[in-house]
Each structure stands twice: as structure tokens, then as C-alpha cells.
Amino acid sequence: MAASTWLYRRALVGSRGISSHIKKLPSNFKALRLCSSSSGDEYQDDKPRFPGALNSYYTEKLEFDDPDDGEAIPVYRVMDRNGKVFNEAHDPKLDKETIQDMYKKMTLLNTMDRILYESQRQGRISFYMTNYGEEATHFGSAAALLPEDVVLGQYREAGVLMWRGFTLDDFMNQCYANQNDLGKGRQMPVHYGEKNLNFVTISSPLATQMPQASGYGYAVKRAGTGNCVICYFGEGAASEGDAHAAFNFAATLEAPVIFFCRNNGYAISTPTSDQYRGDGIAGRGRGYGMKAIRVDGNDVFAVYNVTKAARKIVVEQSQPIMVEAMTYRIGHHSTSDDSSVYRSLKEVNY
Ligand SMILES: Cc1ncc(C[n+]2csc(CCOP(=O)(O)OP(=O)(O)O)c2C)c(N)n1
Ligand SMILES: [Mg+2]
């Protein structure tokens, strides 16, 4: 049954619910056309009032919406490859101390990765995952948040935790699962968590953090603290059903969640070309009724600006936002992976 016919019948029987809704509809409501014997000319300016697409309009052209029409979402950047800022107005003008702190922590993260990666190779720990190549996504986003904003991560966001104050000892204790480990040795290495830093413990099954983030965001909204939730995830995790549930719940509940995708080109050995069609992850924002932006994830100032602007919108307007940070996973997926089997050294060294 056509939706308009159904609505019309419901209006006639005057039942509760939808009929009361119908009374609010304009007098030239589409259903009237069903009872009219006129040519319909007088309804040329009418707007469709189907409840499922209130912003649509009528057309007499039979055309499919084509994802290949129009331009792809651009990649926002602030600096060129040599660190030169294109437009002074976009320089976040962070103080020297903060910039140095970011830089030092990026190199510290690299050093920690090397030591822990080699610890695994020496058989001292069971597993490890490096963060090489994605440092700017971590520090750029973490620096733009407040410490009270809650982080739900995937696993490759050690820099976010480092920025918040997780110490080298904390990292080591967790990876070595010793008596000082905050997780009491119950988790695999890199499954960090620290309540005092508002960093929810990492869990291995992909995308579980995503619907949790939507729920947490809704709770934060109800609590009215003026904070937000940031949910980090890989573009591979975005192929999980839980990702859809998370986006849709957050959008409809208007929860203050920044969905921060680290699009690093691979989900273990699966390249993005085998992972999705359409305009990446940012391209999905519109489908969920979410603002979205794509950013150069290797440009720390661009990531900072985008996260700061996203935070303002999600908190002030109470709605989720999709951020897609374009980057590249330089290391192997984990110590259980050998990426030379599925990608060339030339690609990695680009
Ligand atoms: C439900 C589930 N399926 C499969 C896996 C195995 N797995 C672990 S990481 C990973 C790839 C995830 O890729 P992505 O989300 O892009 O994150 P990245 O590793 O690139 O940072 C897969 C398939 C898992 N942990 N959980
Ligand atoms: Mg990935």
C-alpha cells in the first residue's frame, strides 16, 4: 500500500497516534490527491510529506542517485610536507611548549614501540602492536580534547593515552602483565585502560567500543556535563555491523560523540579497496545524517583543528560527528603479521 494511501486511511478512521500527527500536516497534504479528480496542476508546488524523508521534493525525472556523481570529500590540511603552513589563519597558534611536548611524545612513542616490539621478538612479551605513521592522529586529536572527555579506543591509539599522562612504567607494566599492571595481568599486551584518565579499557573484538561510545555519549548528554566522547576506530572496524549500530544510535539519540576513524589503508592484510565502496568512511556520514570531515592524518595541526572544531559542535549542538583521518600504517599489523607478504617495501617507503 502506498504510504500516502495508508496515512489517508488512518486519518479517516481517526485512530490514535498517527491521526493526531496528520492534523498538523498542511491542508494540501498529498493524500488529498487520491480523492481528487483534478489533473493535479494545483499541486505542482506541493512538498512530499512522507514521514520517512521530510526534506525531499518531488521530481518527474527517473534518475538514480549515483555515488560517482559529484566530487569526493576533500582532505583538509594545514601544512605541506615540509611543515610550511598554507594559510596563516589556519595555524592553531599553539604555544611553543605544547608543540614541543607533541613532538617529544611522538618520538617517545616511536622509541617505546621499538623497545616493546623487540621485547616481543626476544620472547619477553607475548604480543605487541606498533603505532608508526599514525602519531599525528593521536597527538593532534588528544591535544584538542579536555581530560574529562571520555576515550573509547580500538588498540592503535597509545599516543592518546600517553598524552593524557599514562607513564612509560604504566605501559610496560601492562605489556609485561606484572604485579603493577592496572589490569592485574588479565589482558593481552596493548589492551590498556585507565579510569583516572577517562580511557576505557581496550577490548580485542573489533568495533565493540563503537556502540559503547554511542551509549556513553548519550549518558554524557543526559548528565549535562558539557563533555563529549571520542571513539577511535580503524577503517576495517567500520565494516563491522556494530559500526552501523553505533552510527545510527548516536545520530538518532543526538549523542555528543566524535567518531574518529584512523584510515590507515589496511585491516591487517586487507586493503581498503577490498573493504568498501563509496567515498571512504567520511562519505558515510551523510547517510546517517551526521556532519563529516576528512583530514590529513599526518598533519598534526590539521588533526588538532578538526578535532577542536568537532568537539565544539558535538558538545554545543549535541550531535555526533564523523572524522576520517587519512594516514598509513607503516609497521606490520601486529607482531603476529608479516606485511611484506601483501604490500611492497616501495609502498611503505613512499
Ligand atoms: C570481531 C573481530 N573480527 C576480527 C578480528 C581480527 N582483527 C584484529 S585487528 C583486525 C583489522 C582491523 O583493521 P582496522 O580496523 O583498519 O585497524 P588497524 O589495525 O588498521 O589499525 C582484524 C580483522 C577481531 N579482533 N575481531
Ligand atoms: Mg586500518
Automatic annotation (TrEMBL):
EC identifiers of the protein: 1.2.4.4
InterPro entries reported for this sequence: Alpha-ketoacid_DH_E1_comp, DH_E1, THDP-binding
Subcellular localization, as worded in the UniProt entry: Mitochondrion matrix
Domain of life: Eukaryota
Gene Ontology MF annotations: branched-chain 2-oxo acid dehydrogenase activity; metal ion binding
One GO location term (cellular component): mitochondrial matrix
Gene3D superfamilies: 3.40.50.970
Keywords attached to this entry: Metal-binding, Mitochondrion, Oxidoreductase, Potassium, Thiamine pyrophosphate, Transit peptide
Domain Dehydrogenase E1 component: 103-349
UniProt cross-references to Pfam families, sorted A to Z: E1_dh
Record's catalysed reaction(s): N(6)-[(R)-lipoyl]-L-lysyl-[protein] + 3-methyl-2-oxobutanoate + H(+) = N(6)-[(R)-S(8)-2-methylpropanoyldihydrolipoyl]-L-lysyl-[protein] + CO2
Sections of the chain in a coiled coil: none
Names of required cofactors: thiamine diphosphate
Any one Gene Ontology BP term: branched-chain amino acid catabolic process
Protein family according to the UniProt entry: Belongs to the BCKDHA family.
Protein task: The branched-chain alpha-keto dehydrogenase complex catalyzes the overall conversion of alpha-keto acids to acyl-CoA and CO(2). It contains multiple copies of three enzymatic components: branched-chain alpha-keto acid decarboxylase (E1), lipoamide acyltransferase (E2) and lipoamide dehydrogenase (E3).
The name this protein goes by in its record: 2-oxoisovalerate dehydrogenase subunit alpha
Originating organism: Stylophora pistillata
Lineage, broadest ranks: Eukaryota, Metazoa, Cnidaria, Anthozoa, Hexacorallia
Gene encoding the protein: BCKDHA
